[in-house]
Amino acid sequence: MQISIKHGIAASLAAFFLSQTPAIAEEARTLPQLQAEAEAGSAQAQFDYALKLFKIKERQQEGVEWIKKSAAQGDAKAQYLLGDIYLEGRFGVKADMEKTREWAEKSAGQGFDHGQRLMGIYMWNKKPEDIPEGCAWFTLAGDEDNIAQCQQYLTPAQKTALPARVAAIKKQYSLK
């Protein structure tokens, strides 16, 4: 059960990283220029700088520090990536499910679909009785593959209650 759900997020994360190809104007920014902008406090520059550092094996842990700074400023993409880093124990960071939840929830609460999917994965892996909550987060993320897989594990009563739980999450986080 856990392996196929995690496989889905790993594939999603890879696609997410690949989709972060900078625009032509962005390409002209050198690593030192990005570093200067990141040090000046730009959450977007911190995120971009971290992505570039992740591609340099000996600087990946430094990239984690910049993702943390961007996430702390409320950048939903950075929060999601930080949650995923803690989920999988990437870039020399020890896996930590509670930190996964902390950052995934912040990202998901802003309506970021990758963060919502990560919340689904967190709930799915927590305890069997939390699978319905994971399904609600997958529903919010529009993650059809994981929704279909979840449905196999829900009782008829849980399937009936799912729309109400999705509505409650939307209300709790002021999501549309």
UniProtKB/TrEMBL annotation:
SUPFAM superfamilies: HCP-like (SSF81901). Pfam families: Sel1 (PF08238). The lineage of its organism: Bacteria, Pseudomonadati, Pseudomonadota, Betaproteobacteria, Burkholderiales. The keyword Signal applies. Residues 1-25 form the signal peptide. The keyword ATP-binding does not apply. It comes from the Bacteria. Keywords: Signal. This is Sel1 repeat family protein. PANTHER family: DAP3-BINDING CELL DEATH ENHANCER 1.
